[in-house]
């Protein structure tokens, strides 16, 4: 099975010279290639699929070397505050070494967007889940502080950072992030330190879409390209969602892609990457 997957990747690699550029010039040396993996939308609303994804990733990555993005009250129907059983589960995951990020508050976009372009973007690009796109700075700050309190109370340690639903940040969200002291944030193209604005790294996020057959097909194609070009760009992020577990083609694609990328990249945590980029030594290794 494993050899078959590797064979497919090598066959694809052989088609690369037909690209209109020299791939070798874009390939960083092995020691500079990193992979970050995360499970989005961790909430009592999706306990079973999150458990299933976590079990698969532990196996594929040889340990709990991934992050979880926690939603404090998904769609206003799944509050973590007051859910002692789910809080214990979160604490267990954090104790294992899984990095915990705050991921919105409701994960639903209730804002009224000014302008046709913003309204279109909010509705069609995010399925109405771009919660932090249209918030005022004051409202974004309230949700960031309240959400962080709830997650940190559950896990008994600081969160690793904040990642907005659908990776969408409006002006208010950026202002609020700078004011609230979160260590890290990320969007589609980069990871940065909100308190200073410094970029930690740039690179794509590979993700899968389960919402419609067309979106699923295109996400499977993107994952295929990522496997073919698995040595390109220094840092690649992979994001999986509870809905991915509903489609066997996505589950299989995730496994193939994680395996192919982890084979040629060092799997790291966000905090490790941040430390590395600052030039600080690994305290565990010291
Ligand atoms: Zn999400």
Structure in words:
- With 286 residues, this protein is α/β, with parallel strands linked by helices.
- 42% of the residues lie in helices and 16% in strands.
- The protein has one domain (28-277): TIM Barrel (Alpha-Beta Barrel), CATH 3.20.20.370.
- The chain has nine helices and twelve strands.
- The longest helix has 19 residues, at 137-155.
- The termini are far apart.
- The model is unreliable at 1-19 (pLDDT under 50).
- Zinc ion is lined by residues 40-41, 103, 107, 165.
Task: Quickly list its features.
42% helix, alpha/beta, globular, 12 strands, binds zinc ion, 286 residues, TIM Barrel
SSE arrangement:
Blueprint: H1 2-13, E1 34-42, H2 47-60, E2 67-70, E3 73-74, E4 78-79, H3 84-96, E5 99-102, H4 116-124, H5 137-155, E6 161-162, H6 171-180, E7 185-186, E8 190-193, E9 198-202, E10 205-207, H7 213-228, E11 235-240, H8 248-264, E12 266-267, H9 270-278
Parallel strand pairs: 1-2, 1-11, 1-12, 2-5, 5-6, 10-11
Antiparallel strand pairs: 3-4, 7-8, 8-9
Helix pairs in contact: 3-5, 5-6, 7-8
The structure holds zinc ion (ZN).
Zinc ion is lined by residues 40-41, 103, 107, 165.
């Amino acid at each position: 099975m494993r050899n078959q997957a590797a064979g497919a990747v090598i066959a694809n690699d052989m088609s690369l010279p037909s690209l209109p550029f020299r791939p070798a010039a874009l390939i960083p040396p092995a020691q500079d290639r990193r992979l970050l993996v995360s499970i989005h939308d961790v909430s009592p609303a999706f306990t079973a699929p999150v458990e299933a994804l976590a079990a698969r990733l532990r196996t594929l990555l040889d340990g709990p070397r991934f992050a979880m993005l926690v939603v404090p009250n998904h769609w206003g129907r799944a509050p973590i505050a007051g859910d002692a059983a789910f809080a214990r589960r979160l604490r267990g995951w954090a104790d294992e070494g899984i990095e915990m990020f705050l991921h919105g508050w409701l994960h639903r976009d209730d804002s009224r967007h000014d302008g046709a372009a913003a309204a279109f973007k909010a509705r069609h690009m995010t399925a109405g889940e771009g919660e932090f796109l249209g918030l005022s700075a004051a409202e974004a700050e309230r949700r960031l502080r309240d959400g962080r309190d709830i997650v940190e109370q559950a896990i008994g340690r600081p969160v690793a950072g904040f990642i907005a639903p659908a990776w969408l940040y409006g002006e208010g969200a950026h202002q609020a992030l700078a004011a609230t002291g979160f260590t890290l944030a990320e969007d589609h193209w980069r990871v940065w330190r909100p308190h200073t604005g410094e970029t930690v790294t740039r690179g794509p996020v590979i993700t899968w879409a389960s919402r419609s057959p067309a979106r699923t097909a295109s996400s499977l194609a993107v994952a295929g390209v990522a496997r073919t070009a698995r040595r390109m760009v220094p840092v690649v992020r992979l994001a999986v969602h509870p809905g991915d577990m509903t489609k066997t083609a996505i589950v299989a694609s995730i496994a193939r892609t994680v395996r192919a990328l982890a084979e040629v990249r060092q799997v790291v945590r966000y905090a490790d990457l941040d430390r590395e980029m600052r030039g600080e030594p690994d305290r565990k290794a010291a």
